[in-house]
Specification:
Low-confidence stretches: none
Number of helices: 17
Strand order of the largest sheet: 1-2
Order of helices and strands: HHHHHHEEHEHEHEHHEHHHHHH
Radius of gyration: 32 Å
Number of strands: 6
Helix content: 55-70%
Distance between the termini: 29 Å
Shape: elongated
Structural class: mainly alpha
Largest sheet: 2 strands, antiparallel
Length: 461
């Protein structure tokens, strides 16, 4: 991901420095596990061909002296063309420095019985878990903001739209409330992806058969790292796990895109019910100084496309040849990191928008009244049916008057409101003036809205 969209904390998780730091921790834990295994084996007076022979003192030395240098690893990899071997070579340079010629080298115990995927896959799961924790923090914060603002506007009337067309009255707080519930679902998906699929580890050797390493080492490392040992890894951790994570990221991005799309629509000049923040000194257009464009919401929509597309990369990486190939490796180095970094960025931008979103209640009311009462047609339809006529007869009365008003609106003609036309229609004379006043009262549509906010009150992040 380009620096423009990389926030420091998430960027650090996917930096080479952090990756190699996790690698070093895994290799160090493996040495400590082997030493512990050896001690247990000796105490039980048994033999274990998969125990390395490393002593507790040697493991302690490795813990205290193992290190790496990113630039040196890059230099070695340029020749070796193998990142894990380059890393191990560099670690050995630190461990074996000062060891006299002919003396046993401490580095011989590093990576004992392991294969590259043991290290790389377990470390990647650690990084993904770190990243998911950061994403979850952002989702929860955004969800709390959406919930808070829902109650702020629970009594602000606005028009609901279906197919982009005015439908029935609602309250603006319902928009924020719907976003809060969507973010709660996102939180649950992300947490499931973290716990079920991401927090895994595998230290099982070539083809995953523990041929050269005791399962104790895997259990020891996973426990220390807060991971669950994969029950059967075929040298690599199966990529349906990573696809699960990428899917959760993509759905979260799609949710943010949905929120941003609504805000963009509400900010249109001929709607203007809400507007993303426009900061002091900000410029809207190089050619048209009057413009206040929803650029941040548009950026969220654009970057969500990348995250959704990257999920397909993860799906394609599930099918590997036999027990392992590395067709997934190069693809997910780009796609996974970029998805996390991009989602982290747009979460922050969505937070900024929702916290500062400007809502214009007067414009909401003006839009509510814009169609001269047409949005109350459903109540009129039911009221007429209640008088005893058929639904078909009632529908004809309601629609014919509605279309006349609609034509007036379309032609910018003045004319009676919808309520006035219904009142003048002989076919609707059974409706009293008092009934009409009630039918054309927007709050008549919202008598049960309290249940929506009572449910929202129970929502926690």
């Amino acid at each position: 991901m380009i620096d423009r969209y990389t926030r420091p904390q998430m960027g650090a998780i996917f930096s080479l420095e952090n990756k190699y730091r996790v690698w070093l921790e895994i290799e160090t834990l493996a040495c400590e596990a082997q030493a512990e295994l050896g001690a247990q084996t000796a105490k039980a007076n048994k033999s274990n061909s998969k125990a390395s022979g490393i002593t507790l003192e040697e493991a302690r030395f490795i813990r205290e002296n193992a290190n790496f240098d990113v630039e040196r690893i890059d230099e070695l990899e340029a020749t070796l063309n193998h990142d894990v071997i380059a890393f191990l070579t560099n670690v050995a340079e630190y461990l074996d420095a000062g060891i006299a010629e002919g003396e046993p080298k401490p580095s011989r115990w590093v990576h004992y019985g392991m294969t590259s995927s043991d290290l790389g896959d377990t470390a990647l799961c650690c990084q993904i878990t770190q990243a998911l924790d950061l994403i979850l923090e952002g989702v929860r914060k955004l969800g709390d903001t959406a919930k808070k603002r829902a109650f702020e506007f629970k009594d602000t009337l606005c028009v609901g739209r279906t197919h982009g067309i005015h439908a029935e009255p609602m309250v603006f707080g319902m928009k924020f409330g719907a976003w809060a519930w969507a973010l709660k679902r996102a939180e649950e998906r992300l947490k499931q992806a973290r716990d079920l699929s991401a927090a895994r580890g595998a230290i099982s050797g070539a083809v995953g058969s523990y041929s050269s390493i005791d399962p104790f080492v895997e259990e020891y490392i996973c426990e220390k790292l807060g991971l669950t040992a994969d029950p059967l890894s075929t040298q690599v951790i199966a990529r349906d796990n990573h696809a699960h994570v990428a899917s959760a990221l993509a759905i979260t991005a799609a949710t943010l895109e949905h929120i941003a799309t609504e805000i963009r629509a509400l900010q249109k000049s001929d709607t203007l019910e809400a507007e993303e923040p426009f900061t002091k000194g900000q410029k809207g257009s190089s050619a048209m100084p009057h413009k206040r464009n929803p650029i941040t919401a548009e950026r969220i929509c654009g970057m969500a496309r990348n995250i959704k597309a990257n999920a397909q990369v993860a799906f394609d990486s599930v099918a590997l040849w036999h027990e392992r190939d590395i067709s997934h490796s190069s693809a997910e180095r780009i796609a996974l990191a970029d998805s996390f970094i991009a989602l982290d960025y747009i979460l922050a931008k969505a937070q900024w928008i929702l916290e500062g979103l400007v809502v214009y209640p007067e414009n909401c009311q003006a839009n509510l009244d814009r169609t001269r009462g047409l949005i109350y047609s459903s109540k009129v339809l039911l009221a007429l049916v209640d008088t005893g006529i058929t639904r078909e007869e009632a529908y004809d009365i309601v629609q014919s008057n509605a279309m006349t008003v609609w034509d007036d609106i379309q032609q910018a003609r003045s004319g009676p409101s919808y309520k006035e036309r219904i009142a003048a229609d002989e076919r609707a004379k059974s409706l009293t003036p008092q009934q009409l006043d009630e039918l054309f009262d927007p709050w008549n549509f919202l008598e049960d809205r309290s249940i929506l906010f009572e449910r929202l009150e129970t929502l926690t992040f």
